[in-house]
Amino acid sequence: MGDRNGMGDAGARGDAKGGNDMREVQGAQTPEDADGVHQAHRASGVHGVHGIKDVVVVGAGAAGLNAALVLARARRSVAVVDGGSPRNAPAAHMHGYLSRDGMPPAALLEVGRAELAWYGVELIDGQVDHIEDHGRGTGQGVAGQAMGDRSGGFVPGFAVHLAGGPALRARRVLVATGLRDELPEIPGVRERWGRDLLHCPYCHGYEVRDQPLGVLGTHPGAVAHALLLRQWSDDVVLFPHTLELTGEERERLAARGVRIVTGVVGRLVVADDRLRGVELADGHVVPRGAVFVFPRMLPRDALLTELGCERDEGGWVITDAAGRTGVRGVWAAGNVADPRAQVVTAAGMGAAAAFAMNHDLVEEEIERAVAAHRAGQSADSVADSVVGREGGPEAVGSAVGAPGWADAAAMVTSATSADTGPGSGADHDSGSGAGARS
Ligand SMILES: Cc1cc2nc3c(=O)[nH]c(=O)nc-3n(C[C@H](O)[C@H](O)[C@H](O)COP(=O)(O)OP(=O)(O)OC[C@H]3O[C@@H](n4cnc5c(N)ncnc54)[C@H](O)[C@@H]3O)c2cc1C
C-alpha cells in the first residue's frame, strides 16, 4: 500500500525526508505557523457528507483522529468535525510520543488527517453547536455497561448540529473536544504559554533541564509541581505569590532544595522574545530560563452535559474504561474526559472508545438481524436492512426526516484528498469517487 502516512523514513522530527505527503504536511506546518491547523483545514476542505454515519466524531485531536482511524478500519462510516484549536497548538514541538518525539503538534494531526482521508473518512472543518439525541426504545441512560452488553432494543441515534449549518446524522457520537487551559492573569503568562511558560514537565522538562526554573504559586498544586521539577533542574524557585504554605510544605521544599521567593508576582520579564525572569510587585527580578504554572483545566464538555452526561465530583464527565458515558450511544475520549491524558494517552483513549463503539454497533446489528431472521427474511435482505449502511432508512429512527435536516454537502466547499482514498469510499460513501492510491 506504500507509505500512506507519508512519514517514510523521515522520523518524527519533521525533517521532511519522507514522500510527497510528508512534504505537504510539513510545508503547511511550521512552528511559527500558529494558525497552521486552521490553514491546513481550509486548504484540505471536505468532500460530500451524505446519509447517516455510523459514528460522528467531534474533535480532531489525537483522541478523535485515532478513534476515527480505528473505526474506519473496522469499515465504519465516519465523519470528524473539528474546530481547529487543539490544546497543544502553542507549542513548537511535541514530546513523549514514541516515534514522533519532537514533531510539531500540527504535523502529527496533519499526518493523521491524511491517513483518515485515505480511508474515506469525512473531515469537516467546523464547530459543533449541539447534539440532539434521537434514540428510541427503552434503556437510555444505562451507565457503565461493559463491552458486549446488548443494546436491549434501544436504538441510539443523533443529530449533530454544526454551528450555523446543517446537521449530521449519526448512530453513535464520540466527543473528543479536549479541554481549555485557564491561565492566571499575570502579564506575560499568556504570551509565553507553551514556549517558556510551561505546565507539563513530561512534555517540556527535558528541553529546559538544568536551567534556572520557576514555579508560580497560582494553584494549590504549585508545591507538588516545584518538588517534581527538581527532577529536571537543581535550581528551582517557588514563587508562592498569593499561596499560603504550610510548615510541612516548607520543610519538604527545603529538603528537596527548592528555594522560596515570597512576594506577589508582578509580571514575567521578556527580552528578545525570551523569558528572562520573574518580576515581583516590588520590582525585584529573579532571573529564570523557564517558568511553570498549573492552569485551571476546564473540560470542553458542553456537548456531553447537554445530552445528560453526568460529571464526577472533580467536574469530569463520568465514563467507563472505554469512554462510554451514561447516555447510550455517547462516548468521550481524550482530555475532555481526562485532564491527565497526554497525546499518546488521548490517542489510546480514542482507540479504546472506537473498539467499544464498533462492538456496540455490531451488537445492534446482530439484534436486528436476529429479529429479521425470526421474521423469515433472507440473509441478503437482512444485510440490506442492517443499520449502518449510510442512507439506511431506519438508521436513526425518529431522527430521519426530523425538522431542520439538511444535507451537509451544502456546507461543503471542496474535495479532500479522500478522493484518492481506497475502497472504503465504495464501502461507506459513494460520495466522491474513491480510487486506488499508489
Ligand atoms: C502548551 C502545551 C503543550 C503540550 N505539549 C505536549 C507534549 O509535548 N506531549 C504530550 O503528550 N502532550 C502535550 N500536551 C497535552 C496535549 O495537548 C493533550 O494531551 C492533547 O491535545 C489531548 O488531545 P485531545 O484529542 O483530547 O484534545 P485536543 O488536542 O485539544 O483536540 C480537541 C479538538 O476538538 C476541537 N473541538 C472542541 N470543541 C469542538 C466543537 N464544539 N466542535 C468541533 N470541534 C471542537 C478543538 O478545536 C480541537 O481541535 C501539551 C499541552 C499544552 C497546553
From TrEMBL:
Residues 53-349 form the FAD/NAD(P)-binding domain. It comes from Streptomyces albospinus. This is FAD/NAD(P)-binding domain-containing protein. Residues 1-45, 373-400, 414-438 are annotated as: Disordered. Residues 12-24 have a biased composition (Basic and acidic residues). InterPro entries: FAD/NAD-bd_sf, FAD/NAD-binding_dom, Ferredoxin-NADP_redctase_2. Gene3D superfamilies: FAD/NAD(P)-binding domain (3.50.50.60). The keyword Flavoprotein applies. It catalyses: [thioredoxin]-dithiol + NADP(+) = [thioredoxin]-disulfide + NADPH + H(+).
